[in-house]
């Protein structure tokens, strides 16, 4: 008889790099030597056989001491122009991390007013992934973990038999290219042969336990409709996100529509939602549930009213998540970070 499979419930999103950082007393992630080494070994930085001696020497010095001081002279001594540029990018990223002190601090600092973002978008996505791994640490509900993916991975949206299906956009694109058959499928597609439609497992309460063994595959879709488990799970993730960054307690409730004729405050969680909610707030449009691009509507209330910024006066904050013209949801967690009316 085969041995039963042991599922380690807190071992999710190993690709986030969470094992490379350490949590401080506040629960935030400290920048470690191992975390920096992971970036130094990226293909853009790691020397190749014909790299010059100065580049090899600098790389070895940084691997030995990831926090080592690097001068402009050290960089100018590298023969390859592209390599010099790549080192400047990675060292600028390191400087931001070290100045902020924590991963969360570095992520938050990217979106402050007047700040110019100089680090690559890929690094920002990786930071968001790592931040959400820390936010969700200890979570035992796989539906919440799948909902949390929306914070750092774009979603392709389809409607099928009345459902509102969110599937990972990158995985959908990959499956469309190879039909789910890997390299063989890609060759078939290149030959012009029609591949089968993309099908992904839709997570339900019954099969949600499968997530633990495939969390890094990002290949489970969810039905995001109002009253469905994923919609409510997303609300719980927002509560955890706010608690993690601001140390305040909020309650998040899914909605079907905004019936408040004198609402005070709203936040679009993506560009499409911001545009729609602004127009709705200004009275330029009426809310039509059939025509609305809104995929998820929520309200935030502060458990302690004094945690809210002055002027909110106990009123809720409305949140919207919308589908854009490409049938995708591209959430911007920074909108919640920078716009939530909380006492800083």
Question: Would you kindly provide a brief summary of this structure?
Answer:
The chain has 344 residues and is of the alpha+beta class.
Largest sheet: 5 strands, mixed
Spatial order of the strands in the main sheet?
5-6-4-3-11
- Give the fraction of residues assigned to helices: 25-40%
Span of the ends, CA to CA: 58 Å
Spans of at least 5 consecutive residues whose pLDDT stays below 50 are 1-7, 181-196
SSE string, helices as H and strands as E: EEHHHHHHHEEHHEEHEEHEEEH
Structural class: alpha+beta
Query: Beta-strand percentage?
Result: 5-15%
Please outline the helices and strands.
Blueprint: E1 22-23, E2 29-30, H1 33-40, H2 53-64, H3 72-76, H4 81-100, H5 103-109, H6 121-135, H7 142-148, E3 155-160, E4 163-168, H8 169-178, H9 182-190, E5 201-202, E6 220-223, H10 229-246, E7 250-255, E8 265-268, H11 271-282, E9 294-302, E10 317-322, E11 328-329, H12 333-339
Parallel strand pairs: 5-6, 8-10
Antiparallel strand pairs: 1-2, 3-4, 3-11, 4-6, 7-9, 9-10
Helix pairs in contact: 4-5, 7-10
């Amino acid at each position: 008889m085969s041995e039963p499979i042991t599922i380690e419930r807190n071992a999710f999103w190993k690709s986030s790099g969470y094992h490379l950082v350490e949590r401080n007393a506040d629960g935030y992630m400290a920048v470690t030597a191992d975390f920096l080494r992971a970036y130094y070994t990226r293909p853009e930085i790691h020397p190749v056989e014909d790299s010059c001696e100065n580049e090899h020497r600098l790389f070895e010095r940084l691997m030995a001491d990831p926090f080592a001081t690097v001068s402009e002279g050290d960089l100018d001594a590298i023969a390859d122009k592209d390599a010099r540029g790549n080192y400047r990018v990675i060292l600028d990223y390191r400087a931001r991390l070290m100045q902020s002190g924590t991963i969360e601090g570095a992520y938050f600092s990217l979106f402050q007013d007047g700040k110019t973002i100089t680090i690559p978008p890929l690094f920002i996505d990786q930071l968001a992934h790592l931040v959400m791994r820390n936010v969700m640490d200890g979570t035992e509900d796989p539906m919440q973990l799948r909902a949390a993916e929306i914070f750092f991975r774009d979603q392709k949206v389809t409607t099928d038999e009345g459902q509102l299906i969110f599937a990972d956009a990158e995985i959908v694109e990959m499956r469309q290219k190879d039909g789910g058959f890997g390299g063989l499928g890609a060759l078939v597609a290149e030959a012009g042969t029609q591949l089968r439609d993309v099908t992904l497992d839709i997570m339900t309460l019954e099969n949600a336990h499968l997530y633990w063994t495939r969390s890094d595959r990002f290949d489970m879709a969810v039905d995001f409709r109002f009253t469905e488990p994923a919609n409510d799970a997303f609300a719980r993730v927002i509560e955890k996100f706010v608690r993690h960054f601001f140390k305040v307690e909020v309650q998040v409730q899914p909605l079907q529509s905004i019936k408040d004729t004198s609402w005070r405050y709203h936040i679009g969680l993506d560009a499409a939602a911001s545009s729609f909610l602004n127009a709705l707030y200004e009275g330029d449009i009426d809310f039509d549930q059939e025509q609305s691009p809104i995929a998820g509507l929520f309200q935030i209330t502060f458990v302690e009213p004094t945690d809210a910024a002055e002027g909110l006066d106990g009123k809720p904050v409305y949140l919207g998540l919308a589908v854009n013209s490409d049938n995708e949801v591209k959430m911007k967690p920074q909108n919640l970070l920078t716009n939530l009316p909380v006492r800083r």
